[in-house]
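Colleagues,

Please find the record for the two-part complex below.
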Amino acid sequence: MIKKNFLRNTGTFLVFGGPSIFAFIAVIVIPFFVGLYLTFTSWDVRTADTAYIGLANYIEVFQDKVFLGQLWFTLKYVFFTVLIANGFAFFIALLLTSGGRGEQWLRTGFFTPNLIGGIVLGYLWQTLFSQVLPYMGQKYGWSLFQTSWLTSTNTAFWALVIATAWQLIGYLMIIYIAGFSGVPTDVLEAASIDGASRTATIQKVVLPLTIPAIVICVFISLSRSFLTYDINLALTKGGPFASTELATYHIVQKAFLSNQYGVGQAEAVVLFAVVAIIALTQSYLLKRLEVES
Amino acid sequence: MDTHRRGSTVKNILLYLLLLVFLTPFLMIIMNSFKTTQQFVENPLSFPESLRFENYVSAYHNMDFLNSFLNSMIITVVAVLLILFFSAMTGYLFVRFKWKLNSIIFFAMLASMALPFQVIMIPLVMLYGNMDLLDMKTTLFFMYLGFGVPFGVFTFHGFIKGVPFELEESAFIEGSSRLRTFFQIVLPLLKPVFVTLMVLDVLWIWNDYLLPSLVLLSPSQKTLPLSTYNFFSSYAVDFAPLMAGLIMTIIPVLILYLFLQKHIIKGITEGALK
């Protein structure tokens, strides 16, 4: 009897869970552990050598000034992208939650950049930054745009931030709108009866009550911008002179173009640790500001 | 009342202006995709003198548009169907059978959602390369299934928890099997979750560049983002057809969006707030 039950349960497990669990293990679990193991070997495609070398790869990562510089560049990029994208998204969402006519259309419109993938988006902005803006700069004498932003490191950095934020704003806006609609109307009415100004209401009522949405939005924008690859590839291709390579771009180059798999993988693990620490810290800090309505 | 209404009209005008600025990059590209490259370089702000569709024709040929469009279509449709179907089944398994093994796997799936793709990317390509499985659509379907399953199972799990067990119980009493009960009673109830998940997965897979670029190597296999990249890196100075190419890759998702916009917006809200 017990045996029959066991067989039946195994059957249920395999039928309902078999394909998806198999794929999950084969695509995520095994590569994850193999990847961790590889960071402790002197793994190089050319020599096919996989000797155990302990922490040497990690030491190499932390001594590699180029990678550390790119990690710093990535952190700066993530910081400004998250800040700008969330600021705009929050502001637009605020304007779009009074339930007026046409709001549906406006939401639809603001979301559109999110439909297009990073490659197309990157080339779209590349055309603007390299052709349209310099034309306007020269015609109207705006010194800011006279040369293409993509030819100097500092301006190329901002080009990356703007293109990424442009894509993210619509997505975050939708989540903020959902967050605002969760603010109970009676609380808002109470605030207006008490004579609170609009700014005060937003600051003291709306903001604390939408902390969960802010946590999610910051998390989403953090993880998306840390992973940026295709926008980087299409917009700057790491240039000028490899000065705008974001972490992912660098890892792909290292692993698949210069065949240093072990070091590349160690860099990926370091990047993962950085992302995890920042993501956890932000949600911990923001959650402390949360209040019950 | 009147001042209120006037205030909201001013706000709406402001918002439409803001939207116009926000969408200027699109408008610029559309406008210039109808000019010659020379006209574009001379003055990117002028309106086109006539609608030149030659750019579209030449982009269509140079991008091998039809082939890559079909590749993208096949990959997206098959991968999304696989993810939806198998995640629903596994979500059901995890809700209805509280075995130790199930909760361990469920926990592992939750944890894996925090894992960035980069940590898996290198060993993944190496392992499948060693088994000679790269450059096949089947491999890509399988990988998308693996990457899509954790979030899919999580989403279905949350929804199925709320489905009353009594519904299934009566079916069991009448002698219906587990599988039949699932397909005839549970599955139809999951329709809203299917739509939500479908939207999120279609946007992800259709636009994905990195994974296909590592898996699909031969030109005939290329998806739209891959062929856009190829097209751009090899014709980098001929702007007019390039812009037409961009518009052509945007149009398919735009059409989908116009049909599904309500679901897309709902899908993102629910996907994020889960």
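The mean pLDDT of chain A is 85.

Comments are welcome before we finalize the supplementary table.
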